[in-house]
Design brief:
0% of the residues lie in helices and 55% in strands. The strands form four sheets. It has a five-stranded antiparallel sheet, with no helix packed on it. Strands 1-6-13-10 form a four-stranded antiparallel sheet, with no helix packed on it. It has a three-stranded antiparallel sheet with strand order 7-8-9, with no helix packed on it.
């Protein structure tokens, strides 16, 4: 995720006292993992709080939930980076990513817009895949930009 074009704040490089909290639960029906981050901007040391939850239900699928609490109007951009063999077809509220006989639908809130990049150099490099050092090939990158005016839950 990017908030006003900036990535989330970096996590601590080391823990000197207590271990990080355990953020994973698993049952026979599902597995759940989550993590928290903050965003800062040029004008605000704490512009937003972010929690991502990832749920896996075996045989049913995956759900990724992003909860962002922004302090003031902000632009939130969600990015997906794909392998070169994946075809991406955006519509108004979702895109379908396909590779062979597999397909994935990603749905977004109604207040934003999709952009698809593939092998772009300028103004910023976007839409590239690197299978190893010093090698790259064009690959789809999908971005969804939306305006936040308060707490937002993206599924």
């Amino acid at each position: 995720l990017l908030l006003d074009g900036r990535a989330s704040d970096p996590a601590p490089r080391s823990v000197s006292s207590e271990p990080l909290p355990h953020r994973f639960r698993q049952t026979a029906a599902f597995a759940l993992a989550w993590g928290d981050a903050t965003f800062s901007t040029a004008t605000s040391a704490r512009a937003a709080d972010w929690r991502r939850l990832v749920v896996h239900a075996p045989g049913a699928g995956w759900v990724v939930i992003d909860r962002v609490v922004a302090f003031g109007p902000r632009t939130l951009t969600t990015q997906w980076h794909w392998h070169p063999a994946v075809a991406v077809a955006p519509t108004t509220r979702e895109f379908i990513a396909t590779s062979g006989e597999s397909a994935l639908a990603v749905t977004a809130p109604p207040n934003g817009a999709w952009t698809v990049y593939r092998g772009q150099e300028a103004p910023l490099p976007r839409g590239w895949f690197s299978s190893r050092f010093n090698r790259r090939e064009p690959a789809p990158q999908t971005d969804y930009a939306q305006t936040l005016r308060g707490p937002t839950l993206n599924l």
